[in-house]
Amino acid sequence: MYSDFFGFSEKPFTITPNPRFIYLSGNHREAFGRLVYGVDNSAGFIVMTGEIGTGKTTVLRTLLTRLDPGKYSSALIFNPCVSGEQLLANICREFNTHETGQPDDSNLDQLNRFLLEQHTAGRIVVLVIDEAQNLAPDVLEQLRMISNLETEQHKLIQIILAGQPELNDVLGRHDLRQLNQRVAVRCQLTPMDFRDTGEYISHRLKVSGCRIPQLFSRGAVRKIYRFSRGTPRLINIVCEQSLVLAWTRENPEITSTIVETAISEAGPGAGHGGITRRLLAWLLSGVGRV
Question: What is the CATH topology of the domain spanning 2-16+193-284?
Answer without folding.
Answer: Helicase, Ruva Protein; domain 3 (1.10.8)
